[in-house]
Amino acid sequence: MSRSNRERTEQTRQALIDAGRRLFVEKGYAETATPEIVAAAGVTRGALYHHFEDKKALFRAVIECEARAVAAAIEARSASCDAPRAMLIAGASAYFDAMMAPGRTRLLLIEAPAVLGPLASAAIDAENAEATLQAGLAAMLPEAGAMLEPLSSLLSAAFDRAAIAIETGAKRRHYEQAIAVLLDGLADHLRR
C-alpha cells in the first residue's frame, strides 16, 4: 500500500472515530445509528465496515483513544516531578483535567462499562491510566508488595468516582485533597 493510500485509510478511520465520538457523546451509544456515523464522517457504510466489524468495535476504538489521551495527559504532567508522591498528586490533577474534556467522563466511566462490559472496560483502563497509577504507587510504596495491584485498582476506582462527582458539580479541590489524604494514609500504614 502506498503512503498516500495508507494516509487516506488512516484519515477515513480517524474520521469515523471522530464522528462516532461526537455522536456517542451527544446521543449515547444506544441511540446512535451507523447511518448517522457514516454521514457525519462523510464516508460510505462500506468504509465503516472495512475499518470496524460493527458499531461496538468503533465504540471500543473511541474508548481506547479517550483512555490513551487521559494516560498521556497524566504522564506528561507527572513526568516533571521528581518525588513519587508529587508525581501521583500531579497525575491526579492531570486526570481530573483530562476528564473535563466534554463527554469523556460519560464515555469512559458510564457508557464503556455498559457497552463493552466491566471487564473489557477495566482492561482498557488497566493498560492506560491505571498502569501509570500503579507505576507511581510502586515508586511511592515499595513495601506494598502483593497489595500493589489491589491498591491500584481501588484507587483507580476512587479516581473514577471522583471524576463523576466533579462532573456533576462537586468541588474538585475537595477530591484532590481526599486523594492526598488517601495516599498519605497508605504510606503511613505500610511503613508501620
UniProtKB/TrEMBL annotation:
<feature type="domain" description="HTH tetR-type">
    <location>
        <begin position="10"/>
        <end position="70"/>
    </location>
</feature>
<keyword id="KW-0805">Transcription regulation</keyword>
<dbReference type="InterPro" id="IPR050109">
    <property type="entry name" value="HTH-type_TetR-like_transc_reg"/>
</dbReference>
<keyword id="KW-0804">Transcription</keyword>
<protein>
    <submittedName>
        <fullName>TetR family transcriptional regulator</fullName>
    </submittedName>
</protein>
<keyword id="KW-0238">DNA-binding</keyword>
<dbReference type="Pfam" id="PF00440">
    <property type="entry name" value="TetR_N"/>
</dbReference>
<feature type="DNA-binding region" description="H-T-H motif">
    <location>
        <begin position="33"/>
        <end position="52"/>
    </location>
</feature>
<dbReference type="InterPro" id="IPR001647">
    <property type="entry name" value="HTH_TetR"/>
</dbReference>
<dbReference type="InterPro" id="IPR009057">
    <property type="entry name" value="Homeodomain-like_sf"/>
</dbReference>
